[in-house]
């Protein structure tokens, strides 16, 4: 069996899957819960998925298994850069990079590029979606929950957010250790311009790196000199010490025996 990434929605494989789905046969939550579905359940997740991480993968895993023992088909919609930047702000990764990351997750069956910000009934029908899986916490954009209409249509199924990991958390870690990562990349050959750091910052980090290297060299030389000193001086000192201890022990024993009599 040849493994390959999930198709995009306009690829022949995804189109064939869409055509063969009999969407006139509606699947309700109760039907899916009780395994009364007569076809694959088409589940949809959407998001930005910047800097794809374990929390994203766990969401897809939950969505894929939201109805145990039922055959599901997971479609993941990813918003493009233009829409994301206008609604949420800059991303670290470009949209084509985010598309490509998602289609290589083993839980995903299909990737929808240029996903809409808000899901409409028309969009659900066009892609023959049975349920939308997303975090249970309302996603407020503007004045209302983006998934309000889907919830009212009883087509929303909740997944749980993974604690301790998010794109924001990862970016925060990078900012917190900013100089460490800048130093690492400068040493790997990146220029100050490529890293968007000033000339002074570049020289400061380079100087600190060279000074640290100098200190390490001095410490290594000092350590080697210490080892050599012990090598040169220890044998005679140890031999003299052992001889002294033996003589002292003999003297102490003879003195003790002579003064103690038969008292033991």
UniProtKB/TrEMBL annotation:
InterPro entries: CCT (IPR041723), Cyt_trans-like (IPR004821), Pcy1-like (IPR045049), Rossmann-like_a/b/a_fold (IPR014729). The keyword tRNA processing does not apply. GO terms for molecular function: choline-phosphate cytidylyltransferase activity; phosphatidylcholine binding. Its EC number is 2.7.7.15. It comes from the Eukaryota. Keywords: Lipid biosynthesis, Lipid metabolism, Nucleotidyltransferase, Phospholipid biosynthesis, Phospholipid metabolism, Transferase. Pathway: Phospholipid metabolism; phosphatidylcholine biosynthesis; phosphatidylcholine from phosphocholine: step 1/2; Lipid metabolism. Pfam families: CTP_transf_like. The keyword Aminoacyl-tRNA synthetase does not apply. PANTHER family: CHOLINE-PHOSPHATE CYTIDYLYLTRANSFERASE, CYTIDYLYLTRANSFERASE. This is choline-phosphate cytidylyltransferase. It comes from Polypedilum vanderplanki.
């Amino acid at each position: 069996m040849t493994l390959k990434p999930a198709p995009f929605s306009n690829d022949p494989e995804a189109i064939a899957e869409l055509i063969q789905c009999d969407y006139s046969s509606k699947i309700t939550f109760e039907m899916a819960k009780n395994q009364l579905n007569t076809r694959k359940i088409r589940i949809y997740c959407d998001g930005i998925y910047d800097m794809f991480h374990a929390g994203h993968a766990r969401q897809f895993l939950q969505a894929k298994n939201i109805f145990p023992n039922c055959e599901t088909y997971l479609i993941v919609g990813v918003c493009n850069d233009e829409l994301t930047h206008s609604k949420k702000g800059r991303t670290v990764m470009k949209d084509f990079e985010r598309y490509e990351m998602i289609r290589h997750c083993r839980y995903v069956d299909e990737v929808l590029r240029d996903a809409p910000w808000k899901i409409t009934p028309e969009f659900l029908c066009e892609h023959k979606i049975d349920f939308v899986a997303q975090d249970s916490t309302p996603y407020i954009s503007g004045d209302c929950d983006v998934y309000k209409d889907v919830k009212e249509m009883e087509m929303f199924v909740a997944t749980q957010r993974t604690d301790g990991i998010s794109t924001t958390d990862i970016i925060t870690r990078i900012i917190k250790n900013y100089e460490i990562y800048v130093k690492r990349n400068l040493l790997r050959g990146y220029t100050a311009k490529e890293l968007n750091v000033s000339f002074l910052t570049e020289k400061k980090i380079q100087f600190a790196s060279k000074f640290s290297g100098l200190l390490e060299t001095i410490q290594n030389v000092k350590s080697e000199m210490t080892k050599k000193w012990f090598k040169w001086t220890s044998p005679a000192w140890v031999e003299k010490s052992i001889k002294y201890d033996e003589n002292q022990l003999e003297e102490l024993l003879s003195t003790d025996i002579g003064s103690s009599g038969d008292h033991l």
